[in-house]
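Hello everyone,

My group is preparing for a crystallization screen and wants a predicted model to guide construct design. The compound we'll soak is guanosine-5'-triphosphate. Before spending weeks at the bench, it would help to have a computed complex in hand. I've included the protein sequence and the ligand's SMILES below. Output in structure-token form would be ideal because that's what our pipeline reads.
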Amino acid sequence: MSKLISQDTIVAIATPQGQGAIGVIRLSGDQTFNILKEIAPSKNWHELASHTIHLAHIKREGILLDEALFALFKNPRSYTGEDVAEISCHGSPFILQQVVQLILEKGARLAKAGEFTQRAFLRGRMDLAQAEAVADLIASETEASHRIAMNQMRGGFSNEIKELRVQLINFASLIELELDFSEEDVEFANRDQLRALINSIRLTIEQLIKSFDLGHVIKNGVPTVIVGKPNAGKSTLLNKLLHEEKAIVSEIPGTTRDLIEDEMTLDGIAFRFIDTAGLRETVDKVEAIGVQRTRDKMKQASLIIYLFDVTTTKEKELIADLEELKGLDTPYLVVGNKADTSEKYAEKFNNFNGILFISAKQELGLEELKNRLLNMVNYEKLGSNQTLVTNARHYECLVNTRTALIGASKGMDEQISGDLLAQDIRQALFHLGSITGEVSADDLLGNIFSKFCIGK
Ligand SMILES: Nc1nc2c(ncn2[C@@H]2O[C@H](COP(=O)(O)OP(=O)(O)OP(=O)(O)O)[C@@H](O)[C@H]2O)c(=O)[nH]1
Ligand SMILES: [Mg+2]
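Reply:
Good plan to model first. Here are the tokens for the complex, ready for your pipeline.
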């Protein structure tokens, strides 16, 4: 592993581009304190204690570049596990650039994207899933995505995976042991227990796989498409939800032709609302393309808000539209708009269950609409401490693990030999271990030798 870590000392500006009160430069590697000595000679950096902060002048050829604060972290007690310094300069892009330039001249090289975190992983400061969560955490913009990333970075998800692996490794060791004694026809690994274990692990894996649907949309925003007939008030609704005149509203049917979208956070969850061209048969070429886009979006979206005008829509039309929605397999919400214009709508549609009546224009019923949307994304699941998978790579590893476990179960039903069974379980272990990056065949061996004294 250590072969993968380059010996270079790396440097990068850690704060965003542009002016700020302060700008932080991060330095990591075994030359860190030598370089500090070169750029700020007034201190004996090697002798100062870890986790301390010092004010010092940064000078280039005797000229003062900045007065900065140096935070010191000595290996292994740092983010990367190496010697690290974080230099807080005055936040001028010019100063930061000059200081980085100076550090480069003294022997460091520019860090690649993610290289500090990569080193943290390679030096065992965190596992792969935690390292990935650091990126998610930095990118998180809502309460829900923040919470998931934080939980993952602190190892919640990793621990769950590791626990499953330990259970499997125990069994795998017993089966491998059987292989060593194959001539003697012994069975160390009780097949009934193994079956039960595989089933219980599969159950947990299934749950994690299922959670990806929710986890994925929470990370990226729940795509919510607003559809309906022309003039139903879709664009009006979009504008009211976003508190912004984003889409053109007019009394002319067929106003919206393209997809118009923007994001909005409801109760800590990001929703991506998409306004669409009204659904109708049309001879207008451009509008027809818009209608096709609406239909495509309806298939891709996580949620559909189906909006209809309570004053003009006939019962028959509604029935026909609902039939189409049912065929799509995407959760949808049926919303009657323009409830401000007539009192008779309730009567007119009392054969339909679950319709929400609103007035987009008068902003009536919008709170209820938001509540229903939140309920539709299994909002309550978020409150519990259930782990949500948000990362596509983890999802893939989990699906592969499941395939291997199904293979093992099937194999046991068909009474396959121990070595084939062992292969399936090794596969499962491999995929599970790829999530946290701890795959190695040594695990198995290590475990066998730690538990048994075979002595051969
Ligand atoms: N009375 C009343 N009028 C509304 C309401 N919502 C929208 N309207 C009006 O209905 C007309 C159509 O609104 P839009 O928001 O442009 O409708 P749309 O569904 O986007 O229409 P297309 O883009 O053509 O498909 C406008 O004149 C709006 O002012 C409502 O709640 N009550
Ligand atoms: Mg519109």
